[in-house]
Write a structure and sequence with these properties.
alpha+beta; Heat Shock Protein 90; 3 domains; five-stranded mixed beta sheet; elongated
C-alpha cells in the first residue's frame, strides 16, 4: 500500500472512531428512547452500514423485516439490535476516546512548540508527560517528540482499532448462518405459495381465454365447414353459398390463430425463442415511450425461466417509466458475475415508486422472488428511481 493510501485510511479510520465516540455517548444519553424496537432497528442499521463500508466487503446480510403490524420489528434482529446498544456504548466510547485523546493532544504539542513564550510562566504548556516548556530547548524537543509519537500511534493503530470496532459491530448485528437459512426458507416458502397462486390464476386465465375465445371460434368454424359439406352433398352447384361459408371459415381460422398466438405470447414470448434475451431486450427498449439506453455485458447462456422473468420485469418496469415517472431518459443495464445475473433499470423521473401500492412493481418482485432472486427499489420523492434485480442463473 502506498503512503498516500495509507494516510487516507488513517484519516478515514480516525473519522470513523470519532463518530463512534459520539455515537456511544448518544447511545448512553438516549438509551430509553433507543430501546424502542423500531428506533433500535434504525440505529443498528446505521451502524451496520458504517461498519460494512469501512471494511469494504459485507460480512453478512441484514435483511429488513417483512412482517406487518405490531410484529414488524419483532424477532431475532430486535434482540441483536437491543444488544448492540450497550456494546456500542462501551466500544464506541473506549475506541473513540482513545482516538480523541491522540488527536486532541497533537494541537497542544504544536502550540507548545511555536508559542510557548506567549504564555505566563505558570500557564505554559506541558506537552510531554506533564513536563513544562521553559525555553526553546524543551519546546523544540518535547513538542516535536509528542507530535511524532502521537502521529505514529495514529498511523499504526487507528486503522486496526476501526476495523476491530467494525467487526464487533457486524458480529453483533449480522444474522448467524442458522438465522440466514431460516430467513431464506421463510422467503422461499412465501414465494412458493405466491407462485402456486399465480400459477393457478394463470391457468384459469388461459383456460378462460381458450374457452371464450379460441374454442368458440373453432366451434363456429367446424359448424360452417359441416354446413358447407352438407351443401356440397345436397346442391354442389350452389357455389356462391359455398364460397361465403368457406370465406367465413377462413376468416374465423385466422382470428382463432391470432387469439391463440396472443395466449401463447403471455406464457413465453416468441421473441425470446427467436432473438434471445439480448434481442428481446433491444426490442423492448426500442419500443419504450422514453428514450432508453441499453447496456448488456457478456451474460453467456441464461436459463429460459430466467430469460422470461428478466424480459417481463424489464418490460413492466419500462411501462411504469412511460406511464408514471415523467422521465425524459431511462437506462437498462444487464451484467453477469459468476452465477448471478444483475439487471438495473433507472430513470430520471419524479420517483416515489412503491410496490406496496399494488402497482406493476409488485408483479416484478413476485416474479424475481419466485426464482430465489432479490429486488431492491430505490425511488425517493423527486427521483431518480433505480430498480435492481439479481437472479441465480447457474455457473
Amino acid at each position: 500500500m502506498t503512503s498516500g493510501r495509507r494516510w487516507a485510511r488513517v484519516r478515514r479510520s480516525g473519522g470513523y472512531l470519532l463518530v463512534s465516540l459520539a455515537s456511544g455517548i448518544a447511545t448512553v444519553l438516549a438509551l430509553p428512547l433507543l430501546c424502542v424496537p423500531r428506533l433500535a432497528r434504525l440505529w443498528a442499521d446505521w451502524h451496520h452500514d458504517r461498519a460494512t463500508r469501512l471494511l469494504g466487503t459485507p460480512m453478512a446480510s441484514r435483511p429488513a423485516p417483512r412482517a406487518a403490524g405490531r410484529r414488524a420489528w419483532a424477532g431475532p434482529s430486535t434482540g441483536r439490535d437491543l444488544l448492540w446498544l450497550p456494546v456500542n456504548a462501551i466500544t464506541g466510547v473506549a475506541f473513540g476516546l482513545t482516538a480523541l485523546l491522540c488527536v486532541g493532544n497533537l494541537l497542544p504539542a504544536a502550540v507548545a512548540t511555536a508559542l510557548w513564550w506567549a504564555f505566563e510562566p505558570e500557564d505554559r504548556p506541558r506537552p510531554f508527560v506533564d513536563v513544562p516548556v521553559t525555553g526553546w530547548a524543551t519546546a523544540l524537543t518535547l513538542g516535536p517528540l509528542q507530535i511524532i509519537l502521537l502521529t505514529t500511534l495514529a498511523y499504526l493503530c487507528f486503522p486496526m482499532m476501526a476495523r476491530v470496532h467494525a467487526r464487533i459491530c457486524l458480529a453483533v448485528l449480522s444474522h448467524s448462518t442458522a438465522e440466514q437459512l431460516a430467513d431464506r426458507v421463510a422467503v422461499l416458502t412465501r414465494t412458493r405459495a405466491d407462485v402456486l397462486d399465480a400459477h393457478g390464476a394463470e391457468l384459469r386465465r388461459i383456460e378462460r381465454d381458450l374457452h371464450d375465445g379460441t374454442q368458440a371460434r373453432l366451434v363456429a368454424i367446424a359448424m360452417r365447414l359441416a354446413v358447407a359439406r352438407q351443401v356440397l352433398s345436397d346442391n354442389p352447384r350452389n357455389e356462391q353459398f359455398l364460397a361465403e361459408l368457406l370465406r367465413d371459415a377462413h376468416e374465423g381460422t385466422e382470428e382463432a390463430m391470432t387469439e391463440l398466438r396472443g395466449v401463447i405470447r403471455t406464457v413465453y414470448p416468441p421473441i425470446l425463442a427467436d432473438r434471445g434475451l439480448v434481442g428481446a431486450l433491444t426490442a423492448v427498449t426500442a419500443r419504450c415511450g422514453v428514450p432508453t439506453r441499453l447496456n448488456i455485458g457478456d451474460i453467456e447462456r441464461v436459463p429460459a425461466a430466467v430469460e422470461a422473468v428478466v424480459y417481463f420485469a424489464v418490460a413492466e418496469a419500462l411501462t411504469n417509466v412511460t406511464r408514471h415517472s415523467r422521465a425524459t431518459t431511462a437506462s437498462v443495464r444487464v451484467s453477469r458475475a459468476a452465477d448471478r445475473l444483475s439487471v438495473v433499470v433507472t430513470d430520471n423521473g419524479t420517483g416515489g415508486a412503491d410496490d406496496r401500492l399494488g402497482t406493476g412493481l409488485a408483479g416484478i418482485r413476485g416474479r424475481v422472488l419466485a426464482l430465489d432472486g432479490t429486488v431492491e427499489i430505490d425511488s425517493p420523492a423527486g427521483g431518480p428511481t433505480t430498480i435492481t434485480m439479481e437472479l441465480l442463473c447457474g455457473s
